[in-house]
Amino acid sequence: MKTYDIESEWTASDLALLEDLKRAEALLPEDAPRALLSVRLSVLTEDTTSPVRQELDLRLLAREKGYRVVGVASDLNVSATKVPPWKRKELGEWLNNQAPEFDALLFWKLDRFIRRMTDLSTMIEWCERYGKNLVSKNDAIDLSTTVGRIMVTLIGGIAEIEAANTSTRVTSLWDYARTQDSWLVGKPTYGYVTTKVDGKPALAIEPSAHKALHWARRMALRGVSARRMALCLVRSGLMSAGLTTSTLLRRLRNPALMGYRVEEDKQGGKRRSRLVLGNDGKPIRVGPPIFTEEEFETLQAALDRRGKNQPTRQAHGATRFLGVLICVDCSTNMTVQKNMSNGRSYTYLRCGKCKGGGLGAPNPQDVYDVLVGDVLRVLGDFPVQVREYAKGAEARAEVKRLEDAISYYMAELEPEGRFSKTRFTRERAEKTLDRLTEELDAIDPETTQDRWVLVHNGKTFRAMWEAGGMEAMAEDLRRVGVTCEVTRTKVKGVRAPSVHLRLKIPRDVRERLVIKGDDFAARL
């Protein structure tokens, strides 16, 4: 089993068939139903169907049903169990933003498209809401018929059972592996590599990681900051260039470095690991120790002494407008840091890469207040517009009715027609024909198409943000890509720097501010 290469090669015969299908498609009438092809594959084995084969089969199905192919949503190396259709990179873009551009969604087999009954139910509801159809190449699925709706539910149930069985087997393997003193499955903790001892899988210490961890421990005992240690480790090549302070601290605080089995500790809002205890109530040893218990305990004590008691994490985060306030010098986020001096606590806005976090901007709330005022002045009076889906079926039906009526009256006004026999009937028919023509001309052609329309809800962003507070404003600013550069300038004789804010607003901010409803929000 291997991961499938997204840039898969098409054979000469495949390309020839593709060209034939496209030529046949070009002969379809302009109003032919539009099809989106969904191609998915998690891993390639001898039993799976390649993306090339899936696409060609679906194009053949589209030709059979008279569909015009308008796009191919190809999501490879993606698990249908873990990632629902609306969260996949390509298919999700079509479902969330390009729904007016297709009428039917074609897929090779239901388990290539979806594997959970809840996801299937969501997609059926979505299709009913937007007037779309689901069509499978190898399953009797067609939402336009009662039998097809029953079949899609039954087949989806079978797919979910198969996925659940696979999940159960994997879970059972992990539950068994975590109680064993040998390394059976999984990625080892930093500092270890997998090997074999007497033909059995085991863990061994990785030499360069061992050197880096012990060097970091010695520096921690000397009182060196974790940030300084991370910089030195990257420069020396002992750890990768992407190393962050939080990653280094997480590695140094992992009890797995004593050779014990650990599991993720989800308590406390921090990414930490905790020991797994065996049936005897003692930690399970799975490898040789990098640190002895005494070395590990003294390391933790040193890290605790150096650590700072930062603000408690709140529901909205310790830093307001995180991702909006950006340091002008190093282009990293400004975050709230707390320092202690002479028994008093002080909070500052600092950045991530400037030396020492740059000049500390005290009183973060003052910075927030200035930012709020600038945003309200520039964007506050913009109207709140909501994107809604408008169907063109009703307008199309009205256009057809008028065209048929006009054709009827025109034919009957011809010589020997029923309206041409008397002056009275001809004049009445001509007036009716004029009225029908005016009604047809009054219909905007755009309204006959499925489309997105913008609806003003009567509010301004100022009113919405005043009701929702800073959190609502920050969320919208991040959504549309508005940032604020923070410049801190040293003032002679004054401890606190001068702080200047500069808003950076995208040119298409009006379009970005449009609120796009999420049909799948409740399912995420």
Automatic annotation (TrEMBL):
The keyword rRNA-binding does not apply. PROSITE patterns: RECOMBINASE_DNA_BIND. Residues 189-309 form the Recombinase domain. GO terms for molecular function: DNA binding; DNA strand exchange activity. InterPro entries: DNA_bind_recomb_sf, DNA_bind_recombinase_dom, Resolv_N, Resolvase-like_N_sf, SSR_resolvase. Coiled coil: none annotated. Keywords: DNA recombination, DNA-binding. PANTHER family: DNA-INVERTASE FROM LAMBDOID PROPHAGE, SERINE RECOMBINASE PINE-RELATED. This is Recombinase family protein. It comes from Streptomyces vinaceus. The lineage of its organism: Bacteria, Bacillati, Actinomycetota, Actinomycetes, Kitasatosporales.
